[in-house]
Write a structure and sequence with these properties.
Length: 247
Amino acid sequence: MQGRPIQAVIFDLDNTLTDFIKAKDDAIRAAVDAMIDAGLRLDADTAHRRLYAIYEREGIEYQKVFNRFLQETAGRVEDRVLAAAVIAYRRARDGSLVLYPHAVMVLNRLLREGYGLAVVSDAPRFEAWLRLCRLGLQHHFDRVFTYDDTGVRKPDPLPFNLALRELRVRPEQAVMIGDWPSRDIRGAKDLGLHTVWARYGDKAPPYKDPALDAAEEQAALEAEFVIDDLAQLLDVLDRINNGGKEV
């Protein structure tokens, strides 16, 4: 469809295509229960808070969180307790990680209509591909750009520019959809892309600073479009492609 204004759609991954926060929290709670069953002397609520404090310092993708937690809490890393945590975490994560409603329908429709599709994520490359494969989306996206590919996180322009270059489109020919206003929306808007805030996925991790939520609310006001269901992305594309007219 060479004549239409929009030629490509760039997706954030976590909390845009899948409910990452729910899967993460389910997995952490399962790991805490497993550690307690394996001999950890700490109540579940305190353990939960301490794990999130580590994520707050090191980033939500920090791979050694249980090692750090056990070292800080018990003074050593006992392999039995660590193994119990890792196994429980993985089982719960795999069971909880699901696509948002209508995701497959929307992606299949976009592919049929000839849109170029890409993912721009702040996740590590292998973790992003693990999630895509677990969700059955590995064949929907040939172009996946992560923190490991660029060394910077959104809203830095590099990941967006890399996606535009590989998709062979100009900024005004692309739509960025994401849940994180200060990163996904602001970063894309600054480069001239159309922006869609996935409000349905705007879920903060537990214990997040309220001041940060206020900053995100301000950034969300910059979005060109706001949707509460992924299927509404199709209506957004129709509106842009028809010059802003209702269709």
